[in-house]
Amino acid sequence: MTRLIALGVFLIIGVELLVLIVHDRRFVVAASGLALALVLLNIRRILGDDRQAEDELAPDDAGNLLRRWLATTETTIRWSESTRADWDRHLRPMLARRYEIATGQSQAKDPVAFNACGHMLFGAELWEWVNPNNIRRIRDGQPGPGRAAFEEILRKLEQV
């Protein structure tokens, strides 16, 4: 792309020099405009091909994306039905990020407002499973809240 632009600039300069050497100044603007049009058309063609290639996913690519999404979703559901350690390691950071994005509250800016908004949105019971400050460092195998709590948290996040 940069080579094309550099060659285009040299083409325009070369055309202008050639027309100036011929001593017919009427054609300077027309020849420069023609050279510029050629360069811009080539740039548009190159950019259009890249955009078109991104837009047209092959059926295999779409299938791979769908399979990857499905595998990620199944793994996330398994984590919700697993232990508290898995919940703290995998789901809590994801839910806390989504909570921050959905509400616009940042724990770093105002921790009191962050917690108050979390209590209002989720209630005391569910907020304990979203709150990023409620991680237990001890691996005792305590069960997590389960899929129903995970679904309820996601439902409340969608309503924001």
TrEMBL record:
Q: Does the keyword Membrane apply?
A: yes
Question: Can you tell me where the transmembrane regions are?
Answer: 27-43
Keyword Transmembrane helix recorded: yes
Per its UniProt entry, which superkingdom is the organism in?
A: Bacteria
Entry keywords, A to Z = Membrane, Transmembrane, Transmembrane helix
Q: What is this protein called?
A: Uncharacterized protein
